[in-house]
Amino acid sequence: MESKAVQSTSRFDALKWLVVFVLIAVGVVGNQYFSAESVLYRVLALVGLGLVAAFVALQTERGRRFATLLKEARVEIRKVVWPTRPELVQTTIIVVVFVLVVALILWGMDSLISWLVAGFIG
């Protein structure tokens, strides 16, 4: 009995995704068709269609799982310990110095190899 419920949900989900894709297609085609109209009106229409498409997409199983994922990610981001400004500046300086040192080493190796190859070629 459960498989029938899941199957009907997936059938309706497929219909909902079809509606989402049709809304997106209407937005793309409408934007081209009304290219002579003001950009403001076209953008407002696209934003409206996008919001409706997002609402319909969130009504599907995948959409609900995606919304749950976003909520959980937001909770996890709150748990992050962000660096203080001095830590950030110090780490940035260390990275920049390291990159410059590696660049100088690579430049030196490239110059040495070029000099050796030029010596062999004559």
TrEMBL record:
UniProt GO molecular function: protein transmembrane transporter activity
Family: Belongs to the SecE/SEC61-gamma family.
UniProtKB keywords: Cell membrane, Membrane, Protein transport, Translocation, Transmembrane, Transmembrane helix, Transport
Protein name according to UniProt: Protein translocase subunit SecE
Family annotation (PANTHER family): PROTEIN TRANSLOCASE SUBUNIT SECE
The protein's role, per its UniProt record: Essential subunit of the Sec protein translocation channel SecYEG. Clamps together the 2 halves of SecY. May contact the channel plug during translocation.
HAMAP family linked to this entry: SecE
Assembly with partners or alone: Component of the Sec protein translocase complex. Heterotrimer consisting of SecY, SecE and SecG subunits. The heterotrimers can form oligomers, although 1 heterotrimer is thought to be able to translocate proteins. Interacts with the ribosome. Interacts with SecDF, and other proteins may be involved. Interacts with SecA.
Segments crossing the lipid bilayer: 12-33, 39-58, 88-109
Gene3D superfamilies in the cross-refs: Preprotein translocase secy subunit (1.20.5.1030)
Location of the protein in the cell: Membrane
NCBIfam families in UniProt: PRK05740.2-4, secE_bact
GO BP, one annotated term: intracellular protein transmembrane transport
